[in-house]
Amino acid sequence: MRTLGRLAVLGALASAGLATLLTPAAATPKSTWMTEAAMRTAFIGRTLDGHYINGLRWTETYAAEGRLDYRESERRGLGYWYFRSAVFCTFYDPGYGLSGGCWTALKVSANCYEFYAAGVGDTQPEDGATPGPLDGWAARAWRRGEPSTCEEKPSA
């Protein structure tokens, strides 16, 4: 995987108009990274509701065949998902104004997941990619239809 420093990641996001989504939370994860198998079990075939670090709420459904449906208050996008080891990538079809990225995840409680940037824009990880930076989560989410165990607001 091409190594991206924190500034390079933020610069790439700023050019995509998404810099506010990755302002890091000031906590170091106390859990271990989720494996591909754990993420498949928790996310695939399900809908996640969540929020970015800036509080913007989103919903994304991950269909078993690799397609996804993303929604937030002002935007919607269809696209695709895939895994590269313990990295979960979500990218969007042209015409939605969304680029997507790759993420590592932590399960922080029974139904609360934190996502950390592992690649943005058209940066896709190579096989065997390692988990993303530990400097802060970009998004939190929970499975729809089950009680959320995340805090109501981001704990920045």
Please, could you describe this protein's structure?
This protein is mainly beta and 156 residues long. It has helices at residues 6-15, 36-43; strands at residues 46-52, 57-62, 67-72, 76-84, 87-92, 100-109, 112-120, 139-143. It has one domain (6-143): Lipocalin, CATH 2.40.128.640. The chain contains two helices and eight strands; from the N terminus they run ααββββββββ. It is globular.
Oligomer state of the chains in this structure: single chain
Q: How would you sum up the global shape?
A: globular
Quote the distance from N terminus to C terminus: 28 Å
Overall mean pLDDT score? 77
Strand content: 35-45%
Number of strands: 8
Question: How are the SSEs ordered, and which strands pair?
Answer:
Blueprint lengths: L5 H10 L20 H8 L2 E7 L4 E6 L4 E6 L3 E9 L2 E6 L7 E10 L2 E9 L18 E5 L13
Antiparallel strand pairs: 1-2, 1-8, 2-3, 3-4, 4-5, 5-6, 6-7, 7-8
Would you summarize the structure shown here?
With 156 residues, the chain is mainly beta. The chain has helices at residues 6-15, 36-43; strands spanning 46-52, 57-62, 67-72, 76-84, 87-92, 100-109, 112-120, 139-143. Helices cover 12% and strands 37% of the residues.
Features:
eight-stranded antiparallel beta barrel, Lipocalin, mainly beta, 156 residues
